C-alpha cells in the first residue's frame, strides 16, 4: 500500500524523534543550498538520511543522473515511499555507521549529502559515519551537512582526528527552523 511521504515522516517522528531530529522535512531553499556545489556530471553521489527525499529531488533537478545516486536510509517507513518516488535511484535500507564496509558495493563517490541528525548521536557514531563516508570519497570529494545550530554538527575533535575541516556555505533563514550548511573536506587537499 502506498504511504504519502509526509505520513511516513510524521509516523517516524512520533515513533523515534531522536532518529529523525527535525520537526518537518527540509525546505526547498535548504535543499538548493545543500546541493549547490554538486556538479551533475562529476560522478557518483551518496545521500545519507534522505527521509522524504527533499535533497534527492533537488539533486535530480540539478541534472544528476538517477543511476549515479544512492540513498542510505535506516528508517523502514521511508524506504517504500522513496522507492516509489525515485524508481531509478538505488535505495539501501542501511545504517550509515556501516559505510566503511560498503566500499566494494558502493564504489567511490564525488560527494556525500547528509541529512543525518548528528547532534542526537554519540561522538563514536559520528566518527564512524564521517570516517566511513570519507573512505568512499574520491580525492577532492566533499561531505555536505546541515545543522540547526551555529557551528558544524560534526564536533571539532572528530574533524581533527579525521584530518578534516568544515566551512560554512551559508545559512537559510527561511527554513523551519533556520539552518546552516557546512562543506567538510580533507585538510591536505
Ligand atoms: C533530519 S531527518 C532529514 C530528512 C531529510 N534529509 C530532510 O532534510 O528533510 C534525518 C534522517 O536521517 C535518518 N537516519 C537517522 N539515523 C540514521 C542512520 N544511522 N543511518 C541512516 N539514516 C539515518 C532518519 O531516518 C531521517 O530520515
Elements, N to C (H/E): HHHEHEHEHEHEHEE
Percent range for β-strand residues: 15-25%
Alpha-beta content class: alpha/beta
Mean pLDDT: 95
Task: Give the distinct bound molecules.
Answer: S-adenosylmethionine
> In total, how many domains does the architecture comprise?
1
The CATH topology corresponds to Rossmann fold
Shape: globular
Radius of gyration over all CA atoms, rounded: 15 Å
**Helical stretch count?**
8
Structural description of this entry:
This protein has 189 residues and is α/β, with parallel strands linked by helices. The chain has one domain (5-186): Rossmann fold, CATH 3.40.50.150. It has helices at residues 5-15, 17-20, 28-35, 54-61, 76-85, 103-106, 123-136, 156-162, and strands at 45-48, 69-73, 90-93, 109-114, 137-147, 164-172, 179-186. The chain has a seven-stranded mixed beta sheet with strand order 3-2-1-4-5-7-6, with helices on both faces. Helix 1 (5-15) packs antiparallel against helix 5 (76-85) and helix 3 packs across helix 4. The protein is globular, with a radius of gyration of 15 Å. The model has no long low-confidence stretch (mean pLDDT 95). Bound molecules: S-adenosylmethionine (SAM). S-adenosylmethionine (SAM) is lined by residues 19-22, 25-26, 48-52, 54-55, 72-75, 78, 95-97, 115-117.
Characteristic terms for this protein:
binds S-adenosylmethionine; 189 residues; 7-stranded mixed sheet; Rossmann fold; globular; alpha/beta
Q: Summed up, what is this model?
A:
This protein has eight helices and seven strands; from the N terminus they run H-H-H-E-H-E-H-E-H-E-H-E-H-E-E.
Amino acid at each position: 500500500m502506498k504511504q504519502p511521504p509526509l505520513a511516513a515522516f510524521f509516523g517516524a517522528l512520533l515513533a523515534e524523534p531522536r532518529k529523525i531530529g527535525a520537526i518537518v522535512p527540509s525546505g526547498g531553499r535548504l535543499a538548493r543550498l545543500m546541493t549547490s556545489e554538486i556538479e551533475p556530471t562529476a560522478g557518483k553521489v551518496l545521500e545519507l538520511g534522505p527521509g522524504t527525499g527533499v535533497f534527492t529531488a533537488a539533486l535530480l533537478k540539478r541534472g544528476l543522473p538517477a543511476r549515479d545516486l544512492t540513498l542510505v536510509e535506516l528508517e523502514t517507513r521511508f524506504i517504500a515511499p522513496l522507492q516509489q518516488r525515485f524508481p531509478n535511484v538505488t535505495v539501501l535500507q542501511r545504517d550509515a555507521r556501516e559505510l566503511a564496509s560498503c566500499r566494494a558495493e558502493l564504489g567511490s563517490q564525488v560527494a556525500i549529502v547528509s541529512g543525518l541528525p548528528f547532534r542526537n548521536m554519540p561522538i563514536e557514531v559520528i566518527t564512524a559515519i564521517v570516517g566511513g563516508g570519507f573512505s568512499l570519497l574520491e580525492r577532492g570529494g566533499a561531505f555536505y551537512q546541515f545543522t540547526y545550530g551555529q557551528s558544524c554538527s560534526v564536533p571539532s575533535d572528530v574533524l581533527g582526528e579525521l584530518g578534516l575541516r568544515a566551512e560554512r556555505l551559508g545559512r537559510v533563514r527561511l527554513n523551519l527552523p533556520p539552518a546552516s550548511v557546512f562543506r567538510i573536506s580533507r585538510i591536505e587537499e
